[in-house]
Design goal:
- There is one protein chain.
- The protein has 298 residues and is mostly helical.
- The protein has one domain.
- Helix content is 70%, strand content 1%.
- It contains ten helices and two strands.
- Strands 1-2 form a two-stranded antiparallel sheet.
- A hairpin with a 7-residue loop joins strand 1 and strand 2.
- Helix 2 packs antiparallel against helix 3.
- It is globular.
- It starts with 25 loop residues before the first helix and ends with a helix.
Length: 298
């Protein structure tokens, strides 16, 4: 969704009251409106789940079909902006795209509100607030971890392994993919091109964040799959519905950990990547302060 100029006044006081001048762009106002409608839709769906078992099953199916129908244009919009317009590191382009594929329009709304450049040259200032820095860090983490977890779940559910073993395999796969690929491999440039140094510096923050991701995801996956056997098949739309809900829960639980990690200097936050200009953001990078803090604590 292309950025526009700030929206016009929503209210013009007739007396001596304070004037309000909204600073949000139209895409940002649309993003918040979408989030509001989604919250309303969740309330309606939850209320309808009190219907008979047959009606409840149809409501869930219709909801999932509608959700994935919205996911396609959401992902397309994020991909277009991330890869053609907003100046950000490649790993974040893929991170946002993966997260939008997992959590649909919620991912697209969060992208618009925290990362999409509102006007040419404004990205550095726009992403500076800590809540956006923390969200960028969380997206980076969850995109890698959730990909590993979901890939492992596809395999373990097909093999019919016990649930406790599934959880162990998914944790190991998520942590390994997040650490070895999304953190160390993509971020080695921050550490002089050394993969080993990137791996060492990334281990603690990735482990801390991964625990939050897994806590949120397992709290959704295990109960829902125990109640209904259909999500245990990767060919079922219910499986992907459970995964979408689980990734969203993992994002929520991991977010406060990532805000702290960015604030404490253990992780990078959101950053800007313009041709010919050093990558920068609103906070110190993991290599600038966080790695030194870990080393000092040895």
């Amino acid at each position: 969704m292309q950025a526009n100029q700030p929206t016009t006044n929503l209210a013009q006081p007739s007396g001596g009251g304070m004037e309000m001048e909204p600073r949000a762009t139209r895409p940002q106002a649309v993003a918040v409106s979408i989030l509001s409608l989604l919250v309303l839709a969740v309330g309606v769906v939850v209320a309808l789940l009190g219907a008979s078992p047959g009606d409840r099953a149809r409501i869930i199916d219709v909801t999932l079909i509608a959700w994935f129908a919205l996911t396609a244009p959401s992902a397309a919009n994020v991909a277009w902006d991330a890869f053609t317009r907003t100046p950000q590191p490649v790993v974040m382009k893929w991170g946002w795209l993966l997260m939008t594929l997992y959590v649909g329009p919620i991912g697209a709304a969060l992208y618009i509100l925290s990362c999409e450049e509102p006007a040419p040259g404004d990205h550095e200032a726009f992403i500076r607030p800590l809540w956006k820095q923390g969200l960028g860090s969380t997206i980076h983490c969850v995109a890698g971890d959730a990909t590993g977890i979901i890939a492992a779940a596809v395999v373990t559910t097909r093999l019919g392994l016990p649930m406790w073993f599934d959880v162990i395999v998914e944790y190991v796969a998520g942590f390994a993919f997040g650490l070895l690929i999304f953190q160390a491999l993509f971020m080695k440039g921050m550490f002089g091109g050394s993969y080993a140094e990137a791996l060492r510096r990334s281990f603690f923050p990735e482990w801390l964040s991964m625990n939050g991701v897994m806590a949120g995801m397992v709290a959704i996956m295990v109960p829902l799959m125990a109640l209904d056997p259909s999500p245990k098949e990767a060919t079922s739309i219910h499986f992907w519905g459970v995964m979408a809900l689980a990734v969203l829960a993992g994002l929520i639980v991991a977010y406060p950990f990532n805000v702290w990690l960015v604030h404490a200097g253990f992780k990078h936050g959101m950053s800007t990547d313009r041709p010919g200009v050093p990558i920068g953001g609103g906070t110190e990078s993991q290599g600038e302060r966080g790695g030194e803090a870990v080393d000092a604590g040895k």
